[in-house]
Design a protein that fits this description.
The protein is of the alpha+beta class. It has one domain: outer membrane lipoprotein receptor (LolB), chain A. The chain is built from 8 helices and 12 strands. A 12-stranded mixed beta sheet has the order 7-8-9-10-11-1-2-3-4-5-6-12. A hairpin with a 2-residue loop joins strand 7 and strand 8. Helix 1 runs parallel beside helix 4 and helix 6 packs antiparallel against helix 7. It is globular and about 55 Å long. 42% of the residues are buried.
Length: 283
């Protein structure tokens, strides 16, 4: 796999994290059934307004196994946040730490200098999560169903919710659920324009109509952990040198709800727009 593709994969991983932590809450739901509990967790998280996050991403791309870790803090109400992502050495190329800032649904990523040269020469890359750029990294970031404050849109299409059992997450007792979501059903049920857009973006990215997910919720109805295993071959993801294959296994923990979050965008002259890079690559 080329250096350019792995750099693009790093951008995707960071965007997925933001997709998991940005946005607004859904509607209040009484949690009488497992599906109701999943829906109600969205509103509960929105009420807390912010949290800290840690995550692990395990990528198996074309037979190469890579584990990416990171942590940060996000303000769900104002769509702001900061985090760092540590990427290992890949095919002899040291990638290291990627810094990221989210301001008003715009994601800025700072790559190490030797890799920034492959991405326009400036230290920061910009990914505008509000732009409609087709089925690309931006849509994947928003569409990926790990978004705890917009998950109500996707759970409108829930066909099956299974209670797995009880488990501790970072010392907190939780109930573990497995959920199967039908995107076409969710699209038909969504009424709120913002939530409907989330489902439309997901349907544009996935070649399959169903998405599996797992969620761990505490006794207060707050989501404490979410997990997705993504089959990259089932997604339409533009790449500079061919389509992605393999899987991406993402596990994310949320904790310290209500934490203070401060995020500042980098200077404009230090930023290259990812959309411009994709246009130059003919994507």
């Amino acid at each position: 796999m080329s250096k350019r593709r792995w750099i693009t994969g790093g951008a995707l991983a960071a965007a997925l994290l933001v997709g998991a932590c940005g946005g607004r809450g859904g509607t209040t739901v009484e949690a009488d059934k497992p599906i109701d509990a999943v829906l109600a967790s969205t509103e509960r998280m929105a009420q807390e307004k912010s949290s800290k996050v840690t995550f692990v991403m395990k990528m198996d791309a074309e037979g190469e196994l890579v584990e990416i870790t990171g942590d940060g803090a996000f303000d769900y109400t104002n769509a702001t946040g900061t985090f760092v992502m540590d990427m290992p050495e890949i095919q002899g190329t040291k990638i290291g730490r990627i810094e990221a800032v989210l301001v008003d649904n715009v994601l800025y990523e700072k790559f190490p200098p030797e890799l920034a040269a492959n991405l326009g020469g400036k230290p920061w890359i910009k990914i505008d999560l509000k732009q409609a750029m087709g089925a690309d990294l931006t849509q994947m970031a928003q569409a990926q169903s790990s978004n705890p404050t917009q998950i109500a849109a996707l759970t409108l299409g829930a066909e099956r919710v299974e209670e797995v059992g009880t488990e501790d997450v970072r010392g907190v007792a939780t109930t573990h659920y497995k959920v199967t979501i039908n995107l076409q059903k969710a699209l038909a049920e969504a009424e709120d324009p913002e939530l409907k857009k989330v489902v439309e973006q997901a349907a544009a990215v996935y070649a399959t109509d169903t998405i599996p997910m797992e969620i761990w919720m505490d006794d207060d109805g707050l989501p404490r952990r979410m997990r997705f295993i993504m089959d990259m071959s089932q997604m339409e993801v533009p790449e500079a040198d061919g389509a992605m294959t393999g899987t991406m296994d993402i596990t994310m923990d949320m904790f310290d709800f209500g934490t203070e979050v401060t995020a500042v965008a980098p200077p404009a002259d230090q930023v290259t727009d990812l959309a411009t890079l994709m246009e130059q690559a003919g994507r």
